[in-house]
Structure formats: C-alpha cells, structure tokens
Amino acid sequence: MLLRDQSPLKRTPLHALHVARGGKMVPFAGYDMPVQYQAGVLKEHLHARSAAGLFDVSHMGQIALRAKSGKVADAALALERLVPQDIVAVAPGRQRYAQFTNADGGILDDLMVANFGDHLFLVVNAACKAEDEAHLRAHLSETCVIDALADRALIALQGPRAEAALAKLGADVAAMRFMDTGPRKVLGFDCFVSRSGYTGEDGFEISVPAEHAAALAAALLENADVLPIGLGARDSLRLEAGLCLYGHDIDATTTPVEAALEWSVQKSRRSGGARAGGFPGAEKILSQFEAGASRRRVGLRAQGRAPVREGALLFSDAASSEPVGKVTSGGFAPSLDAPVAMGYLPTSLAASGSQIFAEVRGQRLPLRVAPMPFVPNTYKR
Q1: pTM (2 decimals)?
Q2: Which pairs from 267-272 meet CB under 8 Å and 24+ separation?
Q3: pLDDT above 60 (res 331)
Q4: Bridge partners, residue 185, by sequence
Q5: CA 37 to CA 21: how far, in whole Å?
Q6: How far apart are CA 299 and CA 372, in angstroms?
Q7: pLDDT tens digits, 100-113
Q8: Is 328 helix (H, G, I), strand (E, B) or coil?
Q9: In 3D, which of 79, 81, 59, 84 has the Cα closest to residue 67?
Q10: How far apart are CA 247 and CA 257, in angstroms?
C-alpha cells in the first residue's frame, strides 16, 4: 500500500496535527502521512464503523473545470471525451464516480466529478494528480479552463455519527443525501461538502481552504465521537466496502468491465445510447458490455484465518501448476473478524460460491468467490 521513493516528502496542511496526536508517519504517494495513531489500526477501524473517524485526504488532487463558454453543460460534454460516464446528466449539487480511460480501455485513474452549477469540481488520486491535470490540459484546453486547486485541503469524516459531528460546527448537512455536494459553511469557513467517502459508511468529504484546515480538524476532534484515522484503517475499511484502490485493483491494464464497474457507465454512453462512445477505449469497453470480458474482479472469502495478501497467485485447484489470477487487495477485516480479499479471475471461475485456491507461503489455501461489499454500506439515500 505504501509508495516509497527518494524524493523529499510533501506535507499536508494537517501534518503538525498528525505529529502532535502521535501519528506514525510513513511515505505515501509522495507525502508524509499517518498510517495509524496511538489507538492502533484495529480500534481506529471499528471506531469509524461505530462512531466517526477523521481522515486527512489532502494529498488528493482537487481540480476546477470551467468551459470557456461559461456553460457547465459545455464543460460536461468536454469531459465526456475522456470518461465513459454521463457527465451531462449530473445535476447541480450532485456528483458522480468516473474513470479516465486510455486507448486500450484501461483505467488511467478514477475520480469524482461534481456539478457546482457554473463549473465542474474534480477530485483525483494523489499518485495520479499531476498526470491527470496534464491529461485534461492536453485534451480540453481549447474549450475549458483547468484550474488545479493547490490551496485547498480535503478532510473526510466517516461513520454513523459523522452527520451529528459536522452539524455541531454549524454545517447545514442534515438534508444532504449520498452524492449530494456543494458549498457549505463549516465553523464559519467557506467549504465544499459532499456526502460521500471511501469507507462504505455514511459520511462527508470537506474541501476547505488550506489555511483553515487545521482549525477545522481540531474542532472536529474535540468531539469525543471523532477519532483521527490513519492509512491502515482507511485501507481495511475500503476493502470491507469492496472499493477499488487505484494502482492495485484497477490500473491502465484493467477496463471498467473487467473491474466490475459496469454500474458506473450509464446507458447513454453505451451502445445505442444518446451519446454512445466518444471516449478513449470505447470500442473495447463497449464490446465487453456486449460480449463480456475474459476476466473479472471478484471478492474472496478465506475458509481459514490466514489473510491472503496482494500479489498472491490464484489457482483453479489445489494441484494445478498454472495460476489463473492473482489477489490485488487482501487483509484482515476487523468488522467480520475474518480475512477478505479482492482479485481477478477468468470469468468462467468468477461466479459467487466458486472455490479457488491461493498460494501462501508454499501452501494452497481454499477461498470462495463472495459478493461485495463484504460489509453492507450505510449510505444515506
């Protein structure tokens, strides 16, 4: 999960807060980030499921996309040249999950796209944000203004008590539903708030001016229901939720269909739709909608207690010498008190209940293909 290199590590606006609260700092996507705090990964994970957890996701990229015409519909049409999703249909105050695709149908990055009424607001992955900005500039600069919002932090507040904690700071969020988004005052600061997140829990992501981020985070953490949560629990929470981690479960070699993300491609962009195709890799992706893909991302439940980690090879039986797939994410699921994993298998072996085997330390461990999410989500619909 952790990306290590020799470059000087960047710091988010909450770095001093992490250190002061005992965060164990590690390199991640070029940033010095907390992997856990004094409570430890297990307690942080369970606290986010039962109360509320605060996550620093300021390392992610925030980008404003404005059409030179001034019409948000023109920005949406322009962005549809780069993603297979219906962006035109995203109403003001709403957001949608999307993917940048390449000419082979592979995923360059996944992102969130919000309609702020007069422009689009994009949140992209930390490790890809420079490439994503360059991608947008290379393809959309003639019709759009691309503005990387480097002066903003991003805080996620996740869990069943997130709404109450945010409301205590004056945020008008009670009426918001999953994937609602827009400007809100929080602690008197002008923020962008979306009811979304990366844990499967109800919660919010709050884009705040960088100079106010520490004050906002500190105010949230004064609430006994809110604990700071590090990268370790963030990863186990998203795995339980069956959510993809870019660079692991999806990358430039996996298509949305192979990744079991068909739900994210609306009918208007598929064959026969009002604006079918027109995005990179459309021929391959749309053909997979019609004929199916040769492999598929699946959930995996171990039949024992041993966790099956990323990179473990998968086999169709206990004696086979040729692997049929591999694990892309795996670990212990605290909410289930059991190991879970995700990986890719041939479509013929991807049916729920199918038995396969993972090679772990020279042994073949039995697994069952299982539906995802492993833990039911609690989004406020």
Answers
A1: 0.96
A2: 268/86, 268/88, 268/89, 269/80, 269/84, 269/85, 269/86
A3: yes
A4: 190
A5: 7
A6: 6
A7: 999 999 999 999 99
A8: strand
A9: 79
A10: 17
Query: Residue 3 and residue 235: Cα distance in Å, rounded?
Result: 14
Are the beta carbons of 111 and 124 closer than 8 angstroms?
yes
Q: Report the pLDDT value the prediction gives residue 50, as an integer from 0 to 100.
A: 98
Pairing of strands 95-101, 144-148: unpaired
pLDDT, position 228? 98
**Tens of pLDDT along 296-321?**
999 999 988 999 999 999 999 999 99
Q: Which residue has the tokens 């893909």?
A: 293
pLDDT at res. 303: 85
Closest CA to 38 of 52, 13, 12, 20: 20
CA dist., res. 20 & res. 12, Å (int): 14
Q: Which of 298, 258, 326, 269 is nearest to 105 (CA)?
A: 258
Reported as a pLDDT band with limits 50, 70 and 90, residue 66 is very high
What are the φ and ψ backbone dihedral angles of 188, each rounded to 5 degrees? 85, -5
Rounded Cα distance between 178 and 242, Å, is 17
Distance CA 16, CA 281 (A): 43
**Residues paired with 33 in a beta bridge:** 26
Tokens at residue 290, please? 């019609």
Q: How far apart, in whole angstroms, are the C-alpha atoms of residue 110 and residue 155?
A: 19
Q: Facing residues of 363 across strands? A: 360
DSSP conformational letter for 8: P
* pLDDT tens sequence across 234-289: 999 999 999 999 999 999 999 999 999 999 999 999 999 999 999 999 999 999 99
Give me the helix-helix angle, 41-50 and 231-240, nearest 10°.
50
**pLDDT, position 4:** 45
If we measure between CA atoms, which residue out of 74, 72, 91, 192 comes closest to residue 142?
Answer: 74
Look-up of token digits 């039995």: 366
Tokens for 58?
């300021």
Residues in the chain: 381
**Distance in angstroms (rounded) separating the CA atoms of residues 373 and 200:** 8
